[in-house]
Amino acid sequence: MTGTALSDKKYRVYSEYKKSGVRFFDYIPKHWAISKVRFISSFGRGLGITKANLKDNGVPCVSYGEVHSKYGFEVDPTKHDLKCVDEEYLKTSPDALLSKGDFVFADTSEDIDGSGNFTQLVSDEILFAGYHTVVVRPNSDNYYRFLAYVFDSSEYRTQIRDAVKGVKVFSVTQAILKNTNVWLPTYEEQQKIANFLDHETAKIDTLIAKQEKLIALLKEKRQAVISHAVTRGLNPDTPMKDSDVEWLGEVPEHWVVSPLKYYSKMQGGFAFSSSDFCESGIQLLKIANVYQNRLALERQPTFLNETYLSSHNDFVVTNGDILMSLTGTLGKQDYGFAVLVEDNNEFLLNQRVAKINSVKRNICQEYLLFSLWSDSYLSQLYSLPSGTKQANLSNDDVMGIVIAFPSTIKEQQDIVQYVGTKLERFKLLNDRCTKKIDLLKERKTALISAAVTGKIDVRNWQNND
Hints:
Radius of gyration: 28 Å
CATH superfamily of the largest domain: DNA methylase specificity domains
CATH architecture of the largest domain: Alpha-Beta Complex
Oligomer: single chain
Number of helices: 12
Structural class: alpha+beta
CATH topology of the largest domain: Adenine-n6-DNA-methyltransferase TaqI, Chain A, domain 2
Distance between the termini: 31 Å
Strand order of the largest sheet: 4-11-7-9
Strand content: 15-25%
Helix content: 25-40%
CATH class of the largest domain: Alpha Beta
Largest sheet: 4 strands, antiparallel
Shape: elongated
């Protein structure tokens, strides 16, 4: 067998290969062995606890949520901010304690791609496996770090995805993990492969982090451009006046300063019954669809029969409407998102989402949208009391906030054009960064797969950095 999973020719291949016997890839080096995970590991379960048992102090604990969202691949209590459990569990549940090199798999996933997500303890610190987890403890015959890369490879994860059952929630059981195949060179060779991957993937991760930092900086710059334009205007020499609003500060002297309610109207959504939902028809716009200031129609699509258009006319959404999400998590800025509908289809509006439209010719819809995105507006919005456990905005909350706007539509349109041009530029740069990140992730995935399946031979690799 010749060739590799990578596009370049910098890596050698092994001299001889054999059939792998694994359905998801064909060949492995001739001297490698195939084994089931149950033959090289012991198994256990995490603590039988819930979120209510977690606290800020005690013994660190990693549960399925952290595996999915925060500390995938590896975890270290000295570096990562983990919730804790009471020290009493050291006496009552010692089997859920991890040792260095142990794996913690999430036993459920909300999507098929997350099936097989895991983390590995990479230090000698005390750590519990938490709720909804399966513990895999590899024996000492194999190098734990090499096994981590095997478990992270697309060839291994495909086995799990092929075996899991579920519709909305996918379950990863001990039986599934025990029956998966792994491929094993000698211990010494495992170490060399792991050392190679540690070094090469770290370089890729550094490049990814730089692109992610650039995206964050672009987001900050984008927000600054919007906020400055709708509170200060485009002419730096314009005389200014005090707005008498703390969050606004000074605004151009000829601008209008007014609560939103005097120039706009707001219509809340309707509490449609889930029993009326169907497979197709008119899409219902929910909080999930008003996401990060974009209309995300692909998120949790829900439909109603078209007859609801006539019977619920007040809740019809059309092209040009501005929508805002009114509910989120208390203490987090995950609500108050505003989007401009730019779609010729009609929609229906669900509860806890509202549509906002200018009612006078004094303010144009696009300028209104940028005002709702500005720091001055959002600072006022997030300073409002909005519930005890869940953040809930009322119509009065949204409409009582003060905005500033030019007295002429022409100046508003000039600002809209200026900001729109800037946003297009930011989007272009953001898309380039995102594409680079995707390519780097693809490179990383290909490199891991090539190394741990023997498509490339790194036994003679040396760190020359």
